[in-house]
């Protein structure tokens, strides 16, 4: 196996990466390309699907070239993707009918409030495990069918979008489906991505007729739902296409479930938190779909071929790494690495709290109209205090989730496995250990999202035989133990709720 590998396409919110892994789970080739963030109106966020696909072709080609690897040496390709981001495309031409609506997009908040006012939220939550929110795909698909620009569909009229969809001439999907379609020609998604649409019954493991009717999304346009690691494969790449080889596409997971898989959280009670644009804290709950009483989501964790679905509890935090990007945008820092130095330069925030609710608040608050807030400033407040408060906000939001997770599951997390770009920041990792009063374990391979999708694909084709091999690959880079007292952590966390309260229900005019 020394000369064969597994590739992973990691299509994220800000860019697309292709990583090639060897049997030991080590990265042997890597390429990354950013794509444009499109903001047509306040609260609206879009991506160009064509740009995403072109970037995917580019990073796959560049990574293989840089690693001196021929595409024929890839035993399989796995896919992981920004979840909930939704697009519709023409089945014959492959042309998107509109930009993709990104998971952060809030344009359907009014529609979600209609559902809540009509008393439908509990029924939706019971079937899907999801708190109705503009975050998920259902209202995005509905909006696209109502509003997609008809001029992008040659010869069609605005009124016939749903007719064409019912006839299977239009396809809808999350980004994994878009990539699988372009790679293989097949319309497929996996169970984890399906579970994020708000159209899928996670108990029956099927598209739900009542939800499809509620959002008027024809079933004919939906992808086939398959296991996350699929021994029957989703399809093969075209040997006459850009890769020049026929490679099985055999695994897919939404990015947060991929990180759960990559962190080898295969057992009930295992938990991880990924710090990316947002942060997503998942705990494996085994074969039981645990219902949350504390604002968490019940979701599909993963499924391997021929095996039962593994469920998870999830706390979705919409803005963490994006708050660091905001500090750059407003010139408080010049790069993300600078945050640790600035935060260490002051002993505290001097009472400043920052709530980074730029796109509303996710778990456990679920307020789509919350907005970013800084409170507690005085004339003596400096940028160092605001930078430190921003890092602390990441730790506080994570504690919100950890407390809800323990309340719902009845299990206390003794070690939290962390990954994502922000965990390279030792100050943040130590701060997180202190605020949670929990050990933080950072793995050697921190690109666990890509690694998880590679593992799923590799298991499907027999590159790895068992999940025990994957457990053996997982190695700790560093552990962070709490250095702060319980009392001090509680004191700092104590005013966080007050700050959050001031951010709620702000964007009343949107």
Automatic annotation (TrEMBL):
<dbReference type="InterPro" id="IPR018483">
    <property type="entry name" value="Carb_kinase_FGGY_CS"/>
</dbReference>
<comment type="similarity">
    <text>Belongs to the FGGY kinase family.</text>
</comment>
<dbReference type="GO" id="GO:0019563">
    <property type="term" value="P:glycerol catabolic process"/>
</dbReference>
<dbReference type="Pfam" id="PF00370">
    <property type="entry name" value="FGGY_N"/>
</dbReference>
<feature type="domain" description="Carbohydrate kinase FGGY C-terminal">
    <location>
        <begin position="272"/>
        <end position="460"/>
    </location>
</feature>
<dbReference type="GO" id="GO:0005524">
    <property type="term" value="F:ATP binding"/>
</dbReference>
<feature type="binding site">
    <location>
        <position position="17"/>
    </location>
    <ligand>
        <name>ADP</name>
    </ligand>
</feature>
<dbReference type="InterPro" id="IPR043129">
    <property type="entry name" value="ATPase_NBD"/>
</dbReference>
<feature type="binding site">
    <location>
        <position position="83"/>
    </location>
    <ligand>
        <name>sn-glycerol 3-phosphate</name>
    </ligand>
</feature>
<feature type="binding site">
    <location>
        <position position="14"/>
    </location>
    <ligand>
        <name>ATP</name>
    </ligand>
</feature>
<feature type="binding site">
    <location>
        <position position="321"/>
    </location>
    <ligand>
        <name>ATP</name>
    </ligand>
</feature>
<feature type="binding site">
    <location>
        <position position="13"/>
    </location>
    <ligand>
        <name>ATP</name>
    </ligand>
</feature>
<feature type="binding site">
    <location>
        <position position="321"/>
    </location>
    <ligand>
        <name>ADP</name>
    </ligand>
</feature>
<feature type="binding site">
    <location>
        <position position="255"/>
    </location>
    <ligand>
        <name>sn-glycerol 3-phosphate</name>
    </ligand>
</feature>
<protein>
    <recommendedName>
        <fullName>Glycerol kinase</fullName>
        <ecNumber>2.7.1.30</ecNumber>
    </recommendedName>
</protein>
<keyword id="KW-0808">Transferase</keyword>
<feature type="binding site">
    <location>
        <position position="277"/>
    </location>
    <ligand>
        <name>ATP</name>
    </ligand>
</feature>
<dbReference type="GO" id="GO:0006072">
    <property type="term" value="P:glycerol-3-phosphate metabolic process"/>
</dbReference>
<feature type="binding site">
    <location>
        <position position="255"/>
    </location>
    <ligand>
        <name>glycerol</name>
    </ligand>
</feature>
<keyword id="KW-0418">Kinase</keyword>
<feature type="binding site">
    <location>
        <position position="277"/>
    </location>
    <ligand>
        <name>ADP</name>
    </ligand>
</feature>
<dbReference type="InterPro" id="IPR018485">
    <property type="entry name" value="FGGY_C"/>
</dbReference>
<dbReference type="InterPro" id="IPR005999">
    <property type="entry name" value="Glycerol_kin"/>
</dbReference>
<comment type="pathway">
    <text>Polyol metabolism; glycerol degradation via glycerol kinase pathway; sn-glycerol 3-phosphate from glycerol: step 1/1.</text>
</comment>
<dbReference type="InterPro" id="IPR018484">
    <property type="entry name" value="FGGY_N"/>
</dbReference>
<dbReference type="InterPro" id="IPR000577">
    <property type="entry name" value="Carb_kinase_FGGY"/>
</dbReference>
<dbReference type="Pfam" id="PF02782">
    <property type="entry name" value="FGGY_C"/>
</dbReference>
<feature type="binding site">
    <location>
        <position position="13"/>
    </location>
    <ligand>
        <name>ADP</name>
    </ligand>
</feature>
<feature type="binding site">
    <location>
        <position position="421"/>
    </location>
    <ligand>
        <name>ATP</name>
    </ligand>
</feature>
<dbReference type="GO" id="GO:0005829">
    <property type="term" value="C:cytosol"/>
</dbReference>
<feature type="binding site">
    <location>
        <position position="256"/>
    </location>
    <ligand>
        <name>glycerol</name>
    </ligand>
</feature>
<feature type="binding site">
    <location>
        <position position="84"/>
    </location>
    <ligand>
        <name>glycerol</name>
    </ligand>
</feature>
<feature type="binding site">
    <location>
        <position position="83"/>
    </location>
    <ligand>
        <name>glycerol</name>
    </ligand>
</feature>
<keyword id="KW-0319">Glycerol metabolism</keyword>
<feature type="binding site">
    <location>
        <position position="421"/>
    </location>
    <ligand>
        <name>ADP</name>
    </ligand>
</feature>
<feature type="binding site">
    <location>
        <position position="135"/>
    </location>
    <ligand>
        <name>sn-glycerol 3-phosphate</name>
    </ligand>
</feature>
<feature type="binding site">
    <location>
        <position position="425"/>
    </location>
    <ligand>
        <name>ADP</name>
    </ligand>
</feature>
<comment type="function">
    <text>Key enzyme in the regulation of glycerol uptake and metabolism. Catalyzes the phosphorylation of glycerol to yield sn-glycerol 3-phosphate.</text>
</comment>
<feature type="domain" description="Carbohydrate kinase FGGY N-terminal">
    <location>
        <begin position="5"/>
        <end position="262"/>
    </location>
</feature>
<dbReference type="GO" id="GO:0004370">
    <property type="term" value="F:glycerol kinase activity"/>
</dbReference>
<keyword id="KW-0067">ATP-binding</keyword>
<feature type="binding site">
    <location>
        <position position="13"/>
    </location>
    <ligand>
        <name>sn-glycerol 3-phosphate</name>
    </ligand>
</feature>
